[in-house]
Predict the structure.
Amino acid sequence: MTSNTLGVDFFALDSWTEPPGELRERIGATLRERGIAGLTGARGRHDALKVARLLLAELHPHRDSGPDGLTTIRDTGRQGHRMGLAGLGHSDLAVHTESSQLPSPPRLVILVCLQPGRAGGESILVDGRAVLGELAGFRPAALEALSAPRAAYFGGADGLFAPVLEDLPSRRWRVRLRQDELARFSPEAQAQMPALRTAIARHTVSVRLTAGQAILLDNHRFLHGRAAFTGERLLLRALGPAHSALGLEPGFAAPWSAAEGAKDSACPAPAGRTGPAAVKPC
Ligand SMILES: [Fe+2]
């Protein structure tokens, strides 16, 4: 396993000799802690399917996926300008979570890079846990508005109302976001979008994947997007619920401690949650 400057752990799959159970345990530990992991050595559609079978309970088909359930992400030259299809163009793509219009969006997003393109095309990544921590610490009004049950409406006619930051049982949270025409926000949430975007910008990292590299994202925690690119960029995407052996609990742990002042507190609790409003950095 190697770590890059982003702190993402990359697991090598070149030989595929490690027993699947051990590999799942190692990758699961990283996903549980960080919400993101990387793979190297995925060289084609066959390998992408092997990764999907390794990490997903099932491969969920998508509107744009092929018969095998994988979606080819590339500039088709004719769809990128259409509503909800910007991913199939070459422009930049605002950070989002996948399938935000579903009651239970897929837990894992697997992005396998087969061809990085000539220039640009960096994957833009944002840890929703860090964004939550910043809003809780500095923008409690934003957290209040964005965690309301009807903070946003995602999707078209068959979409749904949902919070952007969802407060789940047991001090766990889930993030859900898109920023294109298929997302509308309540007036209260809309007023807090600048605060949300500022927090997102402060926690944005980018990585230019090379051929054979893959990114695994906890879609209930991490936002992802893309920088504009030129040339032939080709990725394969797999979506689905996480394999049970990865041990992912619902959502992610709040970035503050239940006990005010606890030593492991990474971030102060927001007002009305587990303690008084706090203003310390997290
Ligand atoms: Fe996406």
